[in-house]
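Weekly puzzle thread! Below is a chain. First person to post its structure in token form gets bragging rights.
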Amino acid sequence: MCCNGLKILLMFSFTALSFVLNNFFPNIPVILWYIGSINVFTFLLFSIDKLQAIKTRKRVPENSLHFFSFAGGFLGAILAMILTRHKINKKNFLFTQALILIFWIAAIYFLNTNQDKIQGLLN
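Winning reply:
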């Protein structure tokens, strides 16, 4: 990932893809399409970084890995870290990933417990 603009463009692309897929499969909400696609991408990004590390080639910057994890790819990041045994010995990286996971758990809990209030605001 070369720059922040590219990361944001990719994130908007996943959002647009989610709306397109929702048109073809309206039973699945847009948010699930987004979470699914961003997690697959994040899993692939972590796996590519692991392969690059093995081959001692140019790596994916850690801030890019954190960005896509925070953008919703936290499950793909965790799964890739476990399956490829990548970045599991770097304490600072794990700490940041743990904070991202805690953020997402809190956000999902908040949205789930306040669903009626949020629905009332939208109507």
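Puzzle host: Confirmed. Bonus trivia for everyone else. The chain has one domain: 4-122.
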